[in-house]
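TASK: fixed-backbone design
INPUT:
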């Protein structure tokens, strides 16, 4: 009888520990892919009724992991447990709060000649109720097609595919996830050999145009000296300002910065002016910063956002 009682108590403790374990209200991992490396940015909202340790597995080549908890950035400790590399980002107190994790790795990219393979398993510290993984391809790269099907080179099948005119973004969505694996085959829109030939042809064309322009200028100057006729210089046309195409929420941030002193505001001021959530405002600022529209300067536990003059 006693062994049964002990077993029941152990099962009860196990169930209670599972129920009280922290979870993520939502999680979004964004992999910004370069030709040789990937910048991994994970954003999630922790929900916990007790203090928790943020510990998760990372690729073997990662040397630095940054974490932002309650608007404060710090470095995580990189350790090995059973020959597995992990990031120990310390203990956090109970509650609900947004967390950002950032690190760079080369491990997910494998060179296949003309193509590159991206293979990554996202390992979160806790299970997420709603989860999304966004892969941003390098500028000028695409997903090849087989029999007009793009899904042949993506696993699993994506939920969304979009582009901002420079980068293609692929999005996968799921629920109740703590680990999620993604595989994608990508290649340049123009292969390097064709690009080299194109660059050579363009260079030759530019040289010819410059030679023609210089010859025309010299002949024109000689004619001026002979005729001794003064010619008024044409007025230089003003360059049109290139304004990035913005969505409504991004335009709202830009307008607030334009109308502020020195064209800069604290992130908390933007939060109050827009009534956006912290997560939404962070995503908008990160998108504007990656496109060179704004700059972000960290001051202690907050950020100053400034409009970049074009």
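OUTPUT:
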């Amino acid at each position: 009888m006693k062994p049964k009682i002990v077993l029941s108590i152990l099962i009860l403790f196990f169930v209670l520990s599972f129920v009280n374990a922290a979870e993520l209200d939502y999680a979004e991992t964004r992999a910004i892919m370069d030709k040789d490396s990937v910048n991994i940015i994970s954003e999630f909202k922790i929900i916990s009724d007790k203090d928790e340790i943020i510990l998760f597995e990372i690729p073997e080549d990662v040397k630095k992991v940054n974490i932002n908890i309650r608007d404060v950035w710090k470095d995580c400790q990189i350790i090995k447990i059973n020959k597995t590399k992990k990031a120990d980002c310390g203990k956090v107190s109970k509650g609900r709060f947004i967390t950002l994790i950032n690190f760079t790795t080369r491990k997910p990219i494998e060179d296949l000649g003309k193509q590159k393979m991206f293979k990554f398993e996202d390992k979160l510290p806790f299970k997420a109720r709603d989860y999304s993984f966004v892969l941003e391809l390098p500028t000028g790269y695409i997903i090849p097609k087989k029999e007009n099907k793009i899904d042949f080179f993506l696993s699993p099948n994506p939920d969304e595919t979009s582009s901002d005119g420079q980068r293609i973004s692929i999005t996968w969505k799921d629920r109740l996830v703590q680990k999620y694996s993604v595989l994608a085959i990508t290649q340049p829109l123009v292969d390097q050999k064709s690009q080299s030939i194109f660059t050579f042809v363009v260079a030759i064309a530019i040289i010819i145009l410059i030679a023609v322009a210089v010859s025309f200028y010299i002949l024109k100057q000689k004619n001026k000296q002979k005729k001794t006729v003064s010619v008024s210089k044409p007025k230089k046309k003003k360059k049109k300002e290139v304004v990035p195409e913005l969505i409504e929420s991004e335009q709202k941030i830009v307008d607030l910065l334009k109308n502020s002193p020195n064209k800069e505001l604290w992130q908390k001021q933007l939060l109050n002016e827009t009534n956006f959530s912290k997560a939404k405002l962070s995503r908008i600022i990160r998108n504007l910063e990656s496109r060179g529209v704004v700059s972000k300067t960290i001051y202690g536990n907050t950020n100053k956002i400034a409009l970049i003059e074009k």
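COMMENT: Helices lie at 2-20, 192-227, 248-258, 267-274, 278-290.
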